[in-house]
């Protein structure tokens, strides 16, 4: 799903040298895991509301680069990988709340699963509601049940994937290129949903590293 975002995820060697000792994959992985565990432990042990809100809005004020440097190279089924994808989903929503709300709302109308209930967005889901959902999910990572937050993120991705597929079907004859783009996006959302669900299961078994 990362291809959907206009974000700088590649960094110069000098940046990595100053931050985590160069491009050594083992060093990058170690720092990713250490920072993810340290941040989560610190905030969840003392969830000061001001700190939590600053973390939720961090990428709004500072961009996504610093988060990407820390966690974007981590494997999907890991703590830093989960945190990176949570921030990425929120970024997607904040960059295009109207378009995302449209796809999500379509998904709620055609899905036969209970995912809209799990995701927990207000109904009907418009621009304001989808932004609130994004913030609630990220906030839940720091203050609530971590696995539940991941389950909500997974449900959001599944609903949006269904919405993408539905709209792609509508446009198949009239706008084939747009239809193809939405089909690809649906697959990425579906894949990301699977990754979130796997991370939630690992967290519940104390196995999310």
TrEMBL record:
Sorted UniProt keywords: DNA-directed RNA polymerase, Transcription
Chain intervals with Polar residues compositional bias: 7-17
GO cellular component: DNA-directed RNA polymerase complex
Region feature (Disordered): 1-22
Taxonomy, superkingdom: Bacteria
Name of the protein described by the UniProt record: DNA-directed RNA polymerase subunit beta
